[in-house]
Design brief:
This protein has helices at residues 3-6, 29-44, 76-80, 92-98; strands at 8-9, 59-63, 69-73, 118-119. It has one domain: HIV Type 1 Reverse Transcriptase, subunit A, domain 1 (HIV Type 1 Reverse Transcriptase, Chain A, domain 1, Roll). The protein has 4 helices and 4 strands. β2 (59-63) and β3 form a beta hairpin. Pfam families: RVT_1 (PF00078). Keywords: Nucleotidyltransferase, RNA-directed DNA polymerase, Transferase.
């Protein structure tokens, strides 16, 4: 496993918070067709699995620059009851100082990077949609 998959993401919610399940957003037929296609791809790639959960977030599509559709989960309600972790971000000038004298730089495109992090078992149900 990669380091990203060894690290497990948690989603701690406020004490006493009840599971939230929102009704699905309305979709036009072309969106429903795209939803079915993208869900099938995610199932085949092991990014999602069938489940039963008291939690449920609606999904929607956002058009990308190339006019294709990106499937998005609306976790705003879950985010409202999530306990936020706070991590200090390094100052940009300190980061540049660390790069002084470096000869090689690289950049990566984390396509589907969101799917590269493992969610702890007890928190998987909160990600239902």
């Amino acid at each position: 496993l990669t380091d990203a998959l060894r690290t497990q993401i948690t989603n701690d919610i406020r004490n006493g918070a009840e599971p939230i399940s929102k009704a699905p957003y309305r979709m036009v037929p072309v969106e429903l067709k795209e939803l079915k296609k993208q869900l099938q791809e995610m199932l085949e790639n092991g990014f999602i699995r069938p489940s039963v959960s008291p939690w449920g977030a609606p999904v929607l599509f956002v058009k990308k620059k190339d006019r294709s559709m990106r499937l998005c989960n609306d976790y705003r309600e879950l985010n409202r009851i999530t306990i936020r972790n706070r991590y200090p971000l390094p100052r940009i000038d300190d980061l540049f100082d660390q790069l002084q004298g470096a000869k090689y730089f690289s950049k990566i495109d984390l396509r589907s990077g969101y799917h590269q992090l493992r969610v702890k078992d007890q928190d998987i149900s909160k990600t239902a949609f």
